[in-house]
Amino acid sequence: MDWLWGTLAGFGLGAVAGPLVEPWSRRLQRFARKAARESPVDVHVEWDQAQVWAGAPPWVSFSNYFEGGLPSEPAPADGKEWSGWAERNAGSDWRLTMLVVTVSARTDATVVMDTPRVLATRRDVPLGVGVLWPAPGGADLNPRRYDIDLSAGSPPWVSFRDDDAPRNAQPKPAPSWRLGPGDVERLHIWAKATDDAMYDWTMDLPLLVDGRRVLVRVSKAGQPFVTVGQRQPHRSLIWTGKGWSDSPHG
How many Cα atoms occupy the beta-carbon half-sphere of 59 within 13 Å? Predict the structure, then answer.
């Protein structure tokens, strides 16, 4: 009879504990499903030039494009602040978009980063004005980076440059990166357009994590980046430090 009492006791305990345990079981299942869907890496995209070039000497030029004309808000004296000025006034990048992408591994798996793929849409440049903050001088800053030529075919060509490569050196094919858990890879993304068009673009980072393919989208908070070509057919101005002066394209 002991087996009968044990069976009845187990049945009674299950009947009482089951309703208490079931909600937690469902939560654990949902958590497991969510964890399985999460990316094995964290990717941070920085497009604020004040952050991208924080601590760097003022040897970089900055340029933006505004539809319709100059905004009523005066241009900041520091070119690093121009990206925030443009964002507050619906401006775009002109000639060059510069980003920094930081990739950090979250898992125990090894992560391999393959050559990025760029998705770009070409359109006409609306009437407006391009503005340039010229670098006051100094050596060229040449960080390790991916170069994207938006105006060179579809899809745009992506190449890689080492930070110690001479300025006129031939670009290399983009390498693969291996990240162990906790490792961080930080590199610049420079997307240029040399023609007279406007480009809306995003970039996908193809990652291989323990044999599983993961695609990470690089975008501007879910929206495409916008880069206006260097030879846009409208007005261009250069900042002299005291005011604006008409400038030829280039």
Answer: 9
Rounded Cα distance between 134 and 61, Å, is: 5
* Residue-level length of the chain: 250
- Helix, strand, coil % (nearest 5) of the chain? 20, 40, 40
**Rounded-to-integer distance, Cα 227 and Cα 220, Å:** 12
Q: First vs last Cα of the chain: how many Å apart?
A: 96
- 82 vs 72: CA distance, rounded Å: 14
pLDDT computed for residue 11 by the predictor: 45
Pairing type for strands 184-192 and 145-149 reads parallel
- Write the single-letter amino acid at 163: D
**Chain centroid to CA 177:** 17
Question: Per-residue pLDDT tens for 58-78?
Answer: 889 999 999 999 999 999 999
Strands of 17-67, DSSP E? 41-46, 62-67
